[in-house]
Amino acid sequence: MNGAGARLERDLAPGLVRRVWVEHLRPAVDGGRHPVKRVVGDRVEVEADILVDGHDLLAAVVLYRPAATTDWREAALERGANDVWRGGFTVDSVEPWEFTVEAWVDEFASWRDELSKKHAAGQELASELLEGAELVAAAAERADARDRDWLRRTADALAGDAPQDARVADALSAVLAEVVARWPDRSLATRFEPPIPVDVERERARFGAWYELFPRSLGPSPEVSGTFRDAADTLGYVADMGFDVVYLPPIHPIGRTNRKGANNVLGAGPNDPGSPWAIGAAEGGHTAVHPDLGTLEDFDALVAEARRRGLEIALDIAFQCSPDHPWVRDHPEWFRQRPDGTIKYAENPPKKYQDIHALDFTCSAWRSLWRELRDVMLFWAEREVRIFRVDNPHTKPIRFWRWAIAEVRSRYPDVVFLSEAFTRPKMMHALAKVGFSQSYTYFTWRNTKRELTDYVTELARPPVRDFMRPNFFVNTPDILPEVLQIGGRPAFVCRLVLAATLAASYGVYSGFELLEDEALPNSEEYRDSEKYQLRPRDWGRPDSLRELIAAVNAIRRDNPALHSNDGLRFLPVDNGQLLFYARTTPELDNVILVVVNLDPHHLHHGFVEVPIEDFGLGPGEPYQVHDLLGGGRYLWQGRRNYVRLDPASSPAQVYRLRRRLRTERNFDYFM
Amino acid sequence: MNGAGARLERDLAPGLVRRVWVEHLRPAVDGGRHPVKRVVGDRVEVEADILVDGHDLLAAVVLYRPAATTDWREAALERGANDVWRGGFTVDSVEPWEFTVEAWVDEFASWRDELSKKHAAGQELASELLEGAELVAAAAERADARDRDWLRRTADALAGDAPQDARVADALSAVLAEVVARWPDRSLATRFEPPIPVDVERERARFGAWYELFPRSLGPSPEVSGTFRDAADTLGYVADMGFDVVYLPPIHPIGRTNRKGANNVLGAGPNDPGSPWAIGAAEGGHTAVHPDLGTLEDFDALVAEARRRGLEIALDIAFQCSPDHPWVRDHPEWFRQRPDGTIKYAENPPKKYQDIHALDFTCSAWRSLWRELRDVMLFWAEREVRIFRVDNPHTKPIRFWRWAIAEVRSRYPDVVFLSEAFTRPKMMHALAKVGFSQSYTYFTWRNTKRELTDYVTELARPPVRDFMRPNFFVNTPDILPEVLQIGGRPAFVCRLVLAATLAASYGVYSGFELLEDEALPNSEEYRDSEKYQLRPRDWGRPDSLRELIAAVNAIRRDNPALHSNDGLRFLPVDNGQLLFYARTTPELDNVILVVVNLDPHHLHHGFVEVPIEDFGLGPGEPYQVHDLLGGGRYLWQGRRNYVRLDPASSPAQVYRLRRRLRTERNFDYFM
């Protein structure tokens, strides 16, 4: 409270006389410093603590609007226990929104409540009825023509000479309460300030199945690059597996200076294609395509074909340059120069990345650099790319991302940003808070029951759930997790089902379905990594997981409980190698129960505990669980039920709970 | 983010280029919406999450100042795990303070760190040393004359032609790091905005033992009112018990209209004195004293005598009026009028309080009313009363208190306000947030181990500990708790020790020491309550707890661990009727262990668990616990130790833990 504000308060500013006190409006991220994240169509459930001195009754509403508009819409809040008021609203457009609450003393309701208590106590009420008449007459003055006359007549009647009991009955009538409530006196209402911002994105910001693909590996041999046309031809394969997003590593020209050879060795041979992340060559930089992949027109055709098949292309945004990038020549001021005038390559001492120059985001020419980088994203958005997977955002300034994402969204509100920040938790959170739609996570390294339960619970609850949306990748070109290296097919199935049912967004990097599990020694790096060489694959291999993946993705689409990260609950099971959890819609009209055997080597069985009372099932009421993966249907009853998972045949089961509709003769029907 | 701000950001405002990100500065109440509470001399321990992109090292300081001043003082923060930085500062004056943090990239430390890693890897460092020379030369330009020349020479040496190893040794020297760190480049520092407010009060706002006394009961008989002079004569009795504050119920003239008789009956007799809370009569209102008590000069003498004895007088601020209060005649606009022109009395339907008129804080003349009420408090502050116990603040608007407390404190910063809000938790919290120094609590109704543990833990931890300070009263004129009605002397001792050692402020209403336990049936109201009649007492009764109270208050004064509400920890004991807890100073130089038998009827014994490792004691190391109440000294060892509490002799034991200083021949010394 500094100078001016304090003085105004000393001077008894008009607002001081507002009696209602509103606190702790939620959801809110850091008290409203950053937006809450939601997707279009979501209902935002709102709570606030609302108080008043004394015994008066209150009324309260949530006010909400797209932030670019001026008129508030409103919806009533209901009072719950402990002075918490609850309500909500639906966000129906992709843009920034905001909300607040307003509350006021409901003079008429307070009077009505007192009247009813005094009446019950048999007190004399002449004066009280006159007070009520005044309140109703005042409401009449605020009312429209339709209600005004009726309210005036009612006020007269309350003050009239009918017997007290008759007038009390009128005063307490539900219709009077309803009509007066339409015309409240909100002149002394309290509004929570400032409003809480809500960032509303399209559904794909939260829910989607991703498939990562190197188009250059789709050629006829390890020596010949695949093209955008080959990628277009492969879209059918990806669509058949039920994915939503096809994510391509950088598609730009690749530098030749200090190019890395196979398995990341220094000194590439003449035919080594180099890392796609060493962006830029004589042919161009971040807005050019690699000539081996085709032309920009070929790329446009790929994007169009993807849309035709219900897929979207996601591009990789990696703001770094090979030594051959045109910017190195045209804008040396954007790079850090060594005292000898050469440009520094990227380092993480003592490691050196000789094929990459980092950009200097705080160089004196930062404004032109930032604009150029924004324009790179606008260039691809203009070509109908509306999903960006951003490489290593944690090595660029947080404020750059806040600015750049806002800039892109102001023109293309439907752009989704995935943060590839495998870094410390608070940096991941900060990037999410400034605008990234979703984030890679530590899922890749969470394997045990305890690790998975703790981590996923943290993600699914406030505060994290309100600003960071997970995307659970089972593998990436940089990460072949240890469990896949040693666990064989059961581990692949287990991790797939976990990722697909624990997070609304999940991803697979190609080769996963072919059970690729060869790593460099003591490393999570793939042997003969696709990052440095072409790797054509035989998609049709009989041991492929493609059909299982298709089944899992179909289950995800069919079951709304899996479209959100809310409604997740880990449930008890008496075996430490079995993980059991429920995913539910708020209305409980879709209940999915998942049990996973985390041990790829041994059969495990045990008793799971189903919280039947929370699902509206009585203790003696049988219910059906339908294994959507294996097809089996089981009749369960009560809380404790038996499960048995043999990793060789079914490392994971995904049940849909079906209630019995009616029993008729000897047939049971379940919905 | 609205209009202007958003446009500025689009325009790439200079602040965008700041790379450091500061979040979640704490302590903070509701993210800084309300002040954190501390007392003068406290060290405010500060934490913030501080991040930067990439691998650079950071430096950070906490900035702090009295809010009325302009120059920040600063102290370094240290980096801890998980990007949390910690530090603190001491508040050394009674007034509003504020703090924030500022952090910046430490270019030299980052460079030095990289250099050391590259040097260890045996890399060629010519270019790196030139970079370092530039950084040191830049520091020289920021330095004062004393450091400038030395830095310039060092820069020249780093860029010179000495062997690389020699120059690296210079570059990595501790003295260079220290001198450069004196002259940081903070031009791109990030500061957390806005600063967090801290309300700094005097120690009595947190720590004090209160004694409540009706002066009118100090007369020679139940028919003759005691006076301020009698009260002055009684101060020795109170001081001998070791109390700090003597709190007087309202001392003003009492109304005659609808005066309540003994035991709160309607229709007082001519000699019934009435409730002191029915304030105001022909003799005057809130700034007058009851003629039976004496004169204002007598009151002044009482205040002076109290100060002389190391006591303070606290007055009751009860903003309500008897029907005979001068305001009712002079300012009818301050009261709610009924349609017939009469003034409403206070009600909580169907209950009626005919001897009291509530003030209408939102009447159209609210400004003159609020100023008058403020002036009442200023009147008594002017007469050297600097503690107010505020009656039922939750029935007056929250914003009134925020304004009025700020007004009083702006003139008398040392005024302490105790909130008598026995109401819903969020209202109690709101009153604390807007300025009450301390609050009555639910302690009176928390009896079992679970109840006490849960409630006191909630009070002792953030968020509550940062804005609400408890005052644990064992009884009040309104509350004779059930446990005292049925538990006899052991219950009185148990509750006294709990209150005095679980909260830094606690209070006793007179008669407690005399074990008064007679209530109205099915009620917590005292029979023949002093609220409605005079109750002279025999202070010298042999069964009085006065000596025990004196001992408890002496223990409180002697042990700094009991001066604060921090450093409280409930500890395990294998008996559900025994409560065991530790109170410690931050430096652990004062460790108090308390064990209380919550069952007034039976002996209980059990094994307590002492967290010796947290107190710096080895598993085999004996230590002494000295029962400061009973006088016994026990030699304990290890975590598990035996206790036995017979309610007839020692319902509670208060140990001071004494470490063994040294062992010499056969003598052990403990400090």
Quick rundown:
The first copy, chain A, has 671 residues and is of the alpha/beta class. Helix content of chain A is 28%, strand content 24%. In chain A, the strands form eight sheets. In chain A, strands 20-19-18-13-12-11-22-21 form an eight-stranded parallel β-sheet, with helices on one face. In chain A, strands 2, 4, 5, 8, 9 and 10 form a six-stranded mixed β-sheet that branches.
Tell how many strands the DSSP assignment of chain A holds.
32
The percent range for strand residues of chain A is 15-25%
Mean pLDDT over all positions of chain A: 95
Helical content class of chain A: 25-40%
Distance between the termini of chain A: 60 Å
Gross morphology of chain A: globular
User: Which structural class is indicated by helix and strand composition of chain A?
Assistant: alpha/beta
Our count of helices of chain A gives 15
Low-confidence stretches of chain A: 1-9
The main pleated sheet of chain A reads as: 8 strands, parallel
Sheet with most strands: strand arrangement of chain A: 20-19-18-13-12-11-22-21
Oligomeric state, counting identical vs distinct chains: homodimer
Task: Kindly report the greatest chain-chain contact and the residue count on each side.
Answer: A-B, 69 and 69 residues
Radius of gyration of chain A: 31 Å
